[in-house]
Structures are given as C-alpha cells and as structure tokens.
Amino acid sequence: MDYNLQIDEGVLLQSIKVKRMGGSDSLDELILTNLNIIYIDRGRYTKNVKKVLYFPVEDIKRIDGKAQVALGQNGRNSSLQLQIYFNNGVESFEFSKKAKKEIKKWIKTINSIIDNMEIEEESKAIPGVKVVTETIRDTFGVIANTLTKNKKLLTSKCTGCNAILTGYKKEVVRCKYCDTKNIIK
Known about the structure:
2 helices; 13 strands
C-alpha cells in the first residue's frame, strides 16, 4: 500500500491487528515514521482501506523534552494500550499480539524521534559547531591582540585608486574599492 509518505519520511515501525480506541472494532494497522503516526482503518470484515489518519509526531506533548507516551490499560477489558498525548487530545491504541513488548518498542522509538527533534530545534547546525566557532574566533582574537600590541595603526593611500587605507607597518591590505593589494608603509 502507498502511505503517501513525504520525501524525507521513512517507516520506522509497523504493527498490524491494532485497534484504535474510540474507533471501529476492527483490527487495523499502525505505522510510525519519523514524521507521523499513521493509522489505517481497514474495516471489520474487509481488507479495503476505509480511512487513513495521520498524527504528526511533532504534535506529541513534551514535558522536560520527554514525549508524553505511556503504556496504559483499558478499563473495560484490562487490555494494554499505547497512549499518546497530543497537544489537542489523547489517542489510544490496543495491540493484540505481544502487547507489552510491542508497546514498549513504540514508546522507545517515539522518544528517540522526539530526542532527535529536540536536538534539531536547539541547533539547526551540526552539534558542537557553535562552540568550535566561538573558540576559534576567540583564539584568533588573542593572537591578533598579541601580535599587534606594540604596533601603531597607520594610514596609507591605495596605489590603484588613491583611497585611504589603514593597517600596520608592512601589512598587506586589499583595497575595498579597487581590489588592489597594497603594503602599508
């Protein structure tokens, strides 16, 4: 079946014989991607798809960076459920086979996705780049200050266009107007 995944979306988990609480009594399919939880309602006696529901992973509530997903229990028949708390409500899914193990796998994977989302939100760059960049900038600043401590800032004229240039004695400076290289004298 074509799940209409986005170009940057991939399937991470897939479970069959899953029942959505508050939905039909049919045993359907639940898919977890890096972007969505997809519920496929196949109806009670048919293999044809009745409807497909998409629940964005980014809409899952987070408290202290932890996804609000839990292993719960159905009050009617004591069956185990995957409970997912979204910003706009709760969705519960009942698994039929090896429920506890399967639900724990779903919880772990959802938390892993949320952890990765938190990292991406904190920094759109590669982790650690900001620290490295700041350290390099500070290091160059210290070196520049050390080398230029005893030198006087001088002015000179560009040999190409006579613009005024500033720099230190014997420093090569490129003119910002005509792009000529000049040595400060």
